[in-house]
Amino acid sequence: MNEPKLLQTPLTDLMEELGGKMVPFAGYSMPVQFAPGVRAEHLWTRENCGLFDVSHMGQARLRGADPAKSLEQLVPGDMQGLPANMQRYTVLLNEDGGIIDDLMVSRPDDDGLVLVVNASCKEKDYARITSALAGQMDLEPLETRALIAVQGPKTPKIFAKFMPAACDMVFMQCGHFSLFGHDVMVSRSGYTGEDGFEISLPGEHAEAIVREILSDERVQPIGLGARDSLRLEVGLCLSGHDFDESHTPIGAGLAWAVPKLRREQANFPGAARILAELANNPNQKRVGIQPLGKAPAREGTEIQVGGAEVGRITSGSFGPSFGGPVSMGYVGADHAAMGTQLDLIIRGRAHPAKVVKLPFVQQNYYRGKGT
Amino acid sequence: MAEIYYSEDHEWLAVEGSTAKVGITPYAAEQLGDIVFVELPDAGRNVKQQDEVAVVESVKTASEIYAPVSGTITANNEALEDTPETVNEDAQGAGWFFEMTLSNPEELASLMNKSAYDEFVKGL
Known about the structure:
- Chain A is an alpha+beta fold.
- Among the domains of chain A are: 12-56 and 144-233, Probable tRNA modification gtpase trme, domain 1 (Gyrase A, domain 2, 2-Layer Sandwich); 283-361, Elongation Factor Tu (Ef-tu), domain 3.
- Chain A has nine helices and 19 strands.
- Chain B has helices at 26-32, 86-89, 114-122, and strands at 3-6, 11-16, 19-24, 35-39, 46-47, 52-58, 62-66, 71-76, 98-102.
């Protein structure tokens, strides 16, 4: 077999040593699962703490005179209103208001903004930012850093001994902390719907740090397979699947990422189209779709109403915590109301399904004491 | 007394006279991971050797199952509709897929016995 050479993260060797079944993903060799398997890893994360190597994602610093103001030329989020030590979710738009990628923007210190983008979109995201903001901004990919996610309800208890100050943060706060003597950038966020952290580590120390974290038996390494089923159950989008450049944030169900202030300013790419869709409904909308039988409806499955195609599934799997098949997809605006009956065409046969409210499984973020 | 045959696609057949009970091997079940759905052929369907006859879905992917021999489906294991995990737990027993009558028993010669299959798996 003549396979292209895959990139490695600072944690690839350790993931293999831990029994990871390695597969090519976005050009990297990544663990899709470990010995327990996707379902057990998924459930472990919902009940304990799962550790994910997500170093394949793009971390970068955006520096210049006013990075937040400059970045607002490319995203519909309120970046100038992002306080110190906070992180925000936003989307990178093309000139027509289509979504190139989604990303996290944070202000962990005074050195510009830190961006985290999807592995499969790194090159086009960086090209878009550097060309559109040429002369205003300098984008420095942080290529030597590793990134891990630790996710699950036991995460704060476990990290109370490793990194106590970070456990005072609430959902979407971020900052610098000391972890086993190393300076790390931490945000209280993730992609599983659970409480937890994403931690940016110096690559040369990543393996030693992760070994220390895994010394607590409540933490288990988790593969990309469970990462996908975890995020799908809580209704989070996978870039390039649950939206692409043909969708605006409105059709993609991300209207909340276009705050009032930016709607009024209407000074982001594709603003006219996005504001029109806000007023009049997009042609196609992303919705939660629950197959009513047991057969999972995978990406690409045709969605019909009365024998006519009305859309396609964009993510679909079995939800181990939900206990049945779960999916998302796009349907015409006429068919997007909760409870709408749909047919999913799986291997030539119609399987009944209905439009449901997302998420399938409740999110469990930490928003402060008493919540 | 049934005679057990194995295919290179990791199916087992328990053959008695001109009928066979068919399932996937424990090795195949383990490779597929957590099985969450099995689509089985309806009784009465005629299949040729290597036709796609069933689908096994794990959390992550769907995999096709091919008819190991030609014949007519006579029954399927309806219990798998509610408890597909039985395939992981007891692939060569309660996790059987379907029963069929053989239309060309000579095809059995293209299959393996247990020791040949064990060797085949070792070589993978």
